[in-house]
Amino acid sequence: MSEPEKGLATLGLDKAIRLRWALRDIRGKRLKLPPIDPNDLRTLIDMGYVEMKDGQPVVTNAGLEEIELGD
Questions:
Q1: What are the tens digits of pLDDT across the range 9-57?
Q2: Which of 1, 32, 56, 68 is the most exposed place for a label (fewest CB within 10 A)?
Q3: What is the SS3 string spanning the chain?
Q4: Within 10 A of 18 (CB to CB), how many other CB atoms are there?
Q5: What is the pLDDT of residue 71?
Q6: Bond from prior residue into 4 cis (ω within 30 degrees of 0)
Q7: Cβ-defined contacts of 27-35 (< 8 Å, 24+)
Q8: Cβ burial, residue 57 (10 Å; 0-12/13-18/19+)
């Protein structure tokens, strides 16, 4: 019996991959080219994986754990 999906995996494979890359880009401060899609950023904030500090997105501890799950 398999475990129920958690985190980004609940959003479907394509979206989970895209959002994990967005988390990596935010963590690496690669925010200009290409910019993070505003809808993806909102999803990551709503899930608690990103927070805004001084107008910039920052990956939370939960977001770092999610990145590690995908590696």
A1: 899 999 999 999 999 999 999 988 889 999 999 999 999 999 999 999 9
A2: 1
A3: CCCCCCHHHHHCHHHHHHHHHHHHHHHCCCCCCCCCCHHHHHHHHHCCCEEEECCEEEECHHHHHHHHHHC
A4: 16
A5: 62
A6: no
A7: 27/59, 27/63, 27/64, 27/67, 31/56, 31/57
A8: buried
